[in-house]
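Troubleshooting log. The previous run stalled partway through. Resubmitting the same two chains, unchanged.
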Amino acid sequence: MSQTPRSFQEIILALQNYWASKGCAILQPYDMEVGAGTFHPATTLRSLGSNPWSAAYVQPSRRPTDGRYGENPNRLQHYYQYQVIIKPSPPELQELYLGSLEAIGIDMALHDIRFVEDDWESPTLGAWGLGWEVWCDGMEVSQFTYFQQVGGHDCTPVSGELTYGLERLAMYVLGVDHVMDMPFNNPDAPIPLTYADVFKQTEEEYARWNFDVADTAALLRHFEEAESECRAILDQAHIDPKTGKRIVMAHPAYDQAIKASHIFNLLDARGVISVTERQAYIGRVRTLTKACADAFVQTRAGGWSDAAA
Amino acid sequence: MPDLLIELFSEEIPARMQELAADDLKRLVTNGLVDAGITYASAAAFVTPRRLCLTVEGALDASPALTEERKGPRADAPEKAIEGFLRSTGLTRDALEERETPKGTLLFATTRKPGRPVADIVAEVLDHTIRTFPWPKSMRWGSGSLKWVRPLHSILCILVREDGSEIVPLTVDGIVSGNTTRGHRFHAPDTFSVNNFDDYAAKLKKAHVILDAAERSDTIWHDATNMAFANGLEVVEDAGLLAEVAGLVEWPVVLMGRIGADFLALPPEVLQTSMREHQKFFSVRNPKSGRIERFITVANRETADNGATILAGNEKVLSARLSDAKFFWENDLRVVQGQGMEAWVENLGNVTFHNKLGTQADLIDRMATLAREIAPMVGADPDEAEQAARVAKADLSSEMVYEFPELQGLMGSYYARAASLSDAVAAAAKEHYAPLGPTDAVPTAPVSVAVALAEKIDKLTGFWAIDEKPTGSKDPFALRRAALGVIRILVENDLSLRITLVFAALIGQKIAYLGLKEKFDGTALLGRDLNETGMSEISELVFQAIRNATRDAELQAGFQEAAFAKIDDLLTFFHDRLKVYLRDQGIRHDVIDACIAMPNNDDLSLLVKRARALSETLKTDDGENLIQAFKRANNILTQAEEADGVEYSYGPDPKFAENDAERGLFTALDAAEAKINPAMKAQDFATAMSAMADLRSPLDAFFDAVQINADNAMIRRNRLNLLSHIRQLCTSVADLTKIDG
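Second attempt completed without errors. Output:
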């Protein structure tokens, strides 16, 4: 790894290597559409219960309302977040985090790093935490949060969560002004690719679909379906009648909650949700994620044990 | 006399909480010490982003020993009683003292509580302080259960004596106290030990930490103004921002950067807001042009390149922010210059104001109707007031206000001007939200006043109609502020306006339409002339409004009853807010009640004039004594009227006066009346009250010399009629029976 990264992917790889070297399990992105890395069950569900956990991963994130047809220098409807979650939060988490900035080529001796109050709350996840947005020379480069509650459950122990907006961070490190101009791979590679080569066309396609074409009647139906499927899954008895095993299906149910949340975002982008309805939809998604959280703490990964039961 | 030094070292404390936290630390620890018997000479608290510090000087070495004497049973009391006393005191029989008293020989026990060493007390008090610290928001971390604002890393707690310092041992949720701390996160991250406060402050400074927030502020301001001055510029003062920035750094380094030439044409408020809110930059102004040309940022460290990298980064971030702002500004201008502000108003039809009160566009329709109606009463042109109300909230659809909500109104005035609307309309867009607080300036331009009143009165009547009134500390729609706004606009502009006449029809119509679940548009108001309408017609206003909504007699009756109750209730709410407003100006509660009891009490300006006059009069000797004399007169009269079953309101005749005192009162009354009547007509309540106060001496003399209930029925009746006349005169400004004392 060279001292200063020259491409988007080098920055991602540097983060992967750094957090792997600090003992995190390097997971892969979750295979569903989510609005942020926090939605990955490796964060949402694993921050519940008493089992220790340590993971890092890239999560493609979709925010349909942020689509700008690839024209805005830093707004995208699809972008990458880098997510680190460690439970319990280690005492040296701030130092670990600063080490990750060094790892991607930010020289602490020349830059001004600041931890500025920013409390985090996710109404759809029924979650909140306290922490900061981290500034590098006045630029917000990460969110740093100590989870206090997720899915309506108090977090004990507390997880420390770091979220890096990868495009924005990389643009800063690489000195690029427009995201589409950013080298994706090595600019000296036989086939150098920019961010535009990879994503410009998809930004246009999705922006058109998100804003004008997505079938809202079908989406509304899908929302209802995901909602009822989530409930139906959670209504099942804990003991599987076929295997006789105790199998609480927290994850399949949570998939439906994620789905409902993304469909809500799509409906929002289509402009068919009024201000008042918004709160109601958010409340419905929150009810689902809370129910999934309730189910997850009934699983082994969520801290449930036969002895305690 | 040891000194105490405490430092609680944590991850970054939010800037806005720091000052209060330092005060709390000082208060809680010193109070705890004093309660446990440790007095001290002086104490001071300090705060940086990562540490709370307290120094206490000249504390006692130990709490004083306490001697307590308890009286026991008689020496010859039964064995059991004596045993019980011994048990409760923990002493043996021979330690008790026998003392002769008038009640015989009694046993006395003297117990001595030894003093406790200061270290024990400090440990106890600090432990309790940390565990119960009143952070506005606190959190847990790791596997611990302790709550602190952000993870707490170390506790420094030492007692300093002439012969050296000792660590006060304590452990809070696994954190063991010590005598070490750390310096600046990047410049001096290693731990070091300290011996006393001076040593601590000096070592911190060497480790790139300025402990005192005031010193950091001073440094920042001094360096910033010098840097600006050297360039012929000046820093825009912003005490709030200065305090905040001083709370974000331990080692402030001031840097001045440039704003790209492309952005200098943006409205200065946009530059300032964008820089302040997002980047915490100070604005730097050219005193000649008044334009903002540069910015000051405060870094938390020194660098080998003298901040060049940091400044370049900050300039870049600002440039991205301002590109957005410029993009919004230009898009917005294109819209208003092309289509006027109406396009935005139409958009507001998609934005809910409140689910029971319709969209923002509905709100604007109602405001426009109401502003037109209020206009003649506040000296505004009705057409202009209506137009101003129609565009006042248009900027809520603009891209700039979407991005910077705090610029609402202000952007509206820029855009109104860009749309070639009149200056009065543009000003109303900016001013119609005012006043936002008790000290915020009140609009005075007639069009602004009409729109500002319309906005607030619509809001109040709407939320009253749907029963969303403030309760206790909850006032989510800021209705108290709206009512205070109406009061201040009317009173400070000296506008006479009967507010119930304005809101009677609105409430009537809102109740009716809500009851019918139909959209409410404000048409009930059209074409009325409130100046012509008397109090007796409030019921007519309500009825008309309801009749326009429904012809069903039964529904009409129900709506009317509900509307009257709401109108009374809303007026009471206004009166309650008025009491708070006047109390802050030193006017007593009972004075206001006395004025509320008068007719036309929905004319708030009139009400305030009465209250001020009465309050001033009560401050004089004559005024205060007039109340006594008045009450005496009133009591006698009321008793007589009750006993006799008649009302004494027939004019008294001076020819029945029996002595000089009585004749004197007649003369004084004539003189007073000659002053009071014209003063009342001119609403010059101060003159009227002062004329009333002049009655005090003759009234006192009259009571001294005369028996009201004279044997002669004719004379008695005449005197009661005289009192009645005085009562009538003295209650023309306010109902003095309601005054305390």
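Takeaways: The two ends of chain B are 54 Å apart (CA to CA). Confidence is low (pLDDT under 50) at residues 531-536 of chain B.
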